[in-house]
Amino acid sequence: MRLLDKAPALIFPLLLASQLSFAGIALSSIIIDMPPSSKPYTDITVFNDDKAANAYVIVELYEVINPGTDHEQRRFVQDPKSVSLLISPNKFVILPGGRKQVRIVDIKGPGDSDRIYRAIFKPVVGDTEAASTGVKIMIAYETLILRRPKQPDYTVQAKRQGRQLTFTHTGNSATKLESVYHCAQGQSLKQQNCTELKGARLYADNKLTLTTPAGGEVFYELVTADKRLKNSLR
């Protein structure tokens, strides 16, 4: 499945042609989830949507430190061996309307907790285009890569006090909080008197606090690498 509209994109203009134009690539997936039982590699396909010009693409890899917190940092990876993740190839050309398969390899294997990365697939200017003038819009796409630990623990504790609802991830592997609704007393999700609240991806040690209407019941789902768990809290 090709994902274009929903992929996180970084848009940057470059001086290129005599008029405004776009350089388009698309990715087969924007989230790579590697559970401990899977093979130590996975593939992603990059498409060139331009039917007339080559797409020149480079891939930048970043290790994410303290993901989902105020202290989150992204460290550019110069040596793949330092983080045990390899993307190959990380520079390539795609013919007009063509595609390229890129392999993501975990060199070390699963550890004791998640290893989180971001890979940016960035189109760059070819030699012929660089000699011309004008503006061309280049759209880069970002992929989230999660390498799950040997024994994933997705435990999320939910606590409600007054109008404050707090989710605390006490495990070692990311989960996604989805379909969060507050329903008035005696109402179910199938009825109209419910308010949708914000969901989020919760990494290990993350905490999310939401403000809810008073009383009633909160329904939510926790999505792990292989399950979708429905819960509620009064």
UniProtKB/TrEMBL annotation:
Name assigned to this protein: P pilus assembly chaperone PapD
Xref: InterPro entries: Ig-like_fold, PapD-like_sf
Database matches in Gene3D superfamilies: Immunoglobulins (2.60.40.10)
